[in-house]
Exostosin GT47 domain-containing protein
Amino acid sequence: MPRKFTYDLLWLFHDTYKQTSNLTSNGSPVHRLIVQHSIDYWLWADLIAPESERLLKNVVRVRRQAEADLFYIPFFTTISFFLLEKQQCKALYREALKWVTDQPAWKRSEGRDHVLPVHHPWSFKSVRRYMKNAIWLLPDMDSTGNWYKPGQVSLEKDLILPYVPNVDLCNARCLSESERRRTTLLFFRGRLKRNAGGKVRAKLVAELSGVSDVVIEEGTAGDAGKAAAQDGMRKSIFCLSPAGDTPSSARLFDAIVSGCIPVIVSDELELPFEGILDYRKIALFVSSSDAIQPGWLLTFLRNVSPAQIREMRSNLAKYSHHFIYSNPAQPLGPEDLVWRMMAGKVVTIKLHTRRSQRVVKESRSICTCDCKRANSTG
């Protein structure tokens, strides 16, 4: 793609993106949002690295369109949304859209084999309806219709990717040293009031406030906010992960890399790489209707046996590397799992592409086999 869609956008965020160690820094609210949703940076960094330096061998970048099974669109939708003026951003979106859709590869498949990173729910929003055939890289599905219109997203077509954690990895030594200090039963630090599906947060706050071994705090930005969240998670057995404005929340991945067992209260949540990872081994799933009942959640957590807690914490230590983005990308890290999940879609993509190319005018031209049934923990 033209330089202004890739390298020039990276330059806007140069001080952060140049030093990969700074990508988990919890700075200003805008900085934090870009970092949490910076999956497009990490995937592109893997693809443009010299093959001799890449550790992942299950995806190969080719130079000719005819040789490609998939086309990755290296457009940094989140960076442009947050760092450009509104009208400037929309103009860039339209220009990127025209460039991509004018390409022979797009016209050949109608975009079905193209991969578009739109990990923030506002990213590319003004034009993405024109690219709804592409594989979208998303934080969740959001079946409420607040962020994605009906027919735009589905589990068959798209991929869920984890947020970039805002806290540092608690490695094996850290987990061992922190085990004796985990005296808090349940911890949450973040925005206590959210909109849409996140309204359950306020109800949970009302239910859990004032309990001696429970910590519920309003989150703050900056290094102090990051340190407080990290310290709290490393002192806790369970970490609350309720829905935010969308079904997903970065708190889930912060908890995982902190060795704190997530307690997920988000009835419509879809999870990253669930075709590969079994989240029941590392997290507890609770329906919203149960969680807000007086006394129910605390009774449930106190009845989890020490043996189950030890087993889940051990599994967290094994799973955490699946959620740590890095450069170079590591085997079984999130970048690797993205490529593995994407490879599993290639056959279906070719089916829909070839079918669309051969149907005659009188044929039923729309295949309705998308997986659209909402997730439910009830």
Notes: The two ends are 45 Å apart (CA to CA). The longest strand covers residues 184-190. The first helix runs from residue 7 to 12.
